[in-house]
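User: Sequence recovery, please. Input:
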């Protein structure tokens, strides 16, 4: 007589792939923020060219104009 046992098989797939954002190097560029009134470069920043393709415009304080002006992004 053959007895059949019911087997419970637990298949634990502990295959957690914890892929973090693999940021590639070389896409980050240095940008400057230039006062649109006097043209003075007051701020520098860095951005990823892959994520941010459009040009940035910030309302920042310009020491030359002594007020907040529109600062446009320019590349070196
Ligand atoms: Zn200015």
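Assistant: Recovered sequence (76 residues):
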């Amino acid at each position: 007589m053959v007895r059949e046992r019911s087997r419970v098989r637990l298949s634990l797939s502990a295959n957690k792939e914890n892929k973090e954002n693999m940021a590639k190097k070389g896409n980050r560029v240095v940008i400057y923020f230039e006062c649109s009134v006097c043209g003075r470069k007051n701020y520098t920043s860095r951005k990823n060219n892959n994520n941010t393709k459009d040009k940035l415009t910030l309302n920042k304080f310009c020491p030359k104009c002594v007020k907040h002006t529109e600062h446009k992004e320019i590349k070196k």
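Strands lie at 28-35, 41-48, 57-62, 67-75.
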